[in-house]
Structures are given as structure tokens and as C-alpha cells.
């Protein structure tokens, strides 16, 4: 490329740089903000804008007389005590108690975390049993007895292969080396 062409290109690029810098850093013309609302301002009709201390005192002395139910609890409030006690109904013979159900399912391993594969999005859960660590995907079995059904953010759902009973393990932190 001839020297003259190089100088022309350099001066053109310098002019372009100067124009860009000027457009970027020029002072902005700020016009005063004008309200778009049409019409005149009309204040609210307040007869006496003084603080009503009598109403505040009445609110301070207010005592709640309701059922004293905890509004943060989903359970129903206890029924109100009845004034008249109903006579007991005829005594019916008690039905035999149903047999107790099977004991709760106990998995002898601890769920302590999971990892998500960045490429496939598949999750793998980590379980420990004493010094052994197991890494399972959904559908694989743990200790030959428990199938991993689902991996949640803080839980792992397990199914006992022989009986089909389900249980949910919550994530626990492994104690670090001391």
C-alpha cells in the first residue's frame, strides 16, 4: 500500500475517532421537566390538618377480643366450649384396632449432595454409608435394595425395590475434616 494511501486512511480513522468521542462525551442539553398533566392543581379539602390525638389514644387502648387464633398456623381453631353438655350416646362396642402398618422405611445411607451435568442437565446424587461414598443417577440402585426415583434441591426420593415402599431423604451436611 502506498504511503499516501496509508496517511489518508490514518487521517480518516482519526477523524472518525474524534467524531465518536465528541458524540459520546458532549454535554447533554437538558430541558426543564414539564408535567404532562393538564389542568390546575387542586389540594384535597381538609378542614383541620392537625393530628387527631384522640383517635390515636383510642387505638392505643384497643384490646383484641377475638378467638386468639394464630393466623400463621394452618390448623383450625379449637371449637368453642358448648354451654349444654349433650348426654353420651349409647355405648357401641369398640371395633378391633387395625393391625399396625409396616415400620417406616430406613435407608442406611446419608444423602449429602448432588451435582448437575452442565452438558446434559442430568443430576447425580451423593450418598455415604460409613466410609463408602456412592454416586447415583435417577433409576440406579443403592446397596442393591433402594432405587433412586427423584433428586430434588434438598431431598432424594428412594424406593425399596422389593416392596415398592417410598421414602424421602433430606440433605445433610457431611462433617468436614478436623
Provide an overview of this structure:
The chain starts with a helix and ends in an 8-residue tail after the last strand. The mean pLDDT is 83. It has a domain at 110-170: SH3 type barrels. With 178 residues, it is an alpha+beta fold. The chain contains two helices and seven strands.
What tags apply to this protein structure?
single chain; 178 residues; alpha+beta; SH3 type barrels; four-stranded antiparallel β-sheet; three-stranded antiparallel β-sheet; 2 helices; 17% helix
Give helix and strand order, one letter per element, not per position.
HHEEEEEEE
CATH class of the domain at 110-170: Mainly Beta
Report the C-alpha radius of gyration, rounded: 38 Å
Q: Which ranges are low-confidence, i.e. pLDDT below 50, for 5 or more consecutive residues? A: none
Q: State the strand order across the main sheet.
A: 4-5-6-7
Based on DSSP secondary structure assignment, what is the total number of beta strands? 7
In DSSP terms (H or I, runs of 4 or more residues), the helix count works out at: 2
Amino acid at each position: 500500500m502506498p504511503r499516501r494511501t496509508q496517511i489518508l486512511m490514518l487521517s480518516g480513522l482519526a477523524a472518525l475517532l474524534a467524531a465518536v468521542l465528541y458524540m459520546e462525551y458532549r454535554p447533554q442539553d437538558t430541558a426543564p421537566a414539564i408535567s404532562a398533566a393538564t389542568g390546575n392543581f387542586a389540594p384535597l379539602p381538609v378542614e383541620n390538618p392537625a393530628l387527631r390525638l384522640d383517635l390515636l389514644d383510642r387505638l392505643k387502648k384497643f384490646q383484641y377480643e377475638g378467638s386468639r387464633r394464630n393466623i400463621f398456623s394452618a390448623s383450625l381453631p379449637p371449637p368453642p366450649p358448648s354451654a349444654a353438655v349433650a348426654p353420651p350416646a349409647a355405648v357401641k362396642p369398640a371395633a378391633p384396632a387395625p393391625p399396625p402398618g409396616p415400620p417406616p422405611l430406613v435407608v442406611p445411607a446419608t444423602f449429602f449432595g448432588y451435582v448437575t451435568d452442565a452438558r446434559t442437565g442430568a443430576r447425580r446424587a451423593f450418598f455415604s454409608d460409613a466410609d463408602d461414598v456412592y454416586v447415583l443417577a435417577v433409576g440406579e440402585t443403592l446397596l442393591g435394595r433402594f432405587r433412586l426415583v427423584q433428586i430434588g434441591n434438598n431431598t432424594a426420593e428412594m424406593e425399596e425395590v422389593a416392596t415398592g415402599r417410598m421414602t424421602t431423604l433430606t440433605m445433610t451436611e457431611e462433617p468436614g475434616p478436623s
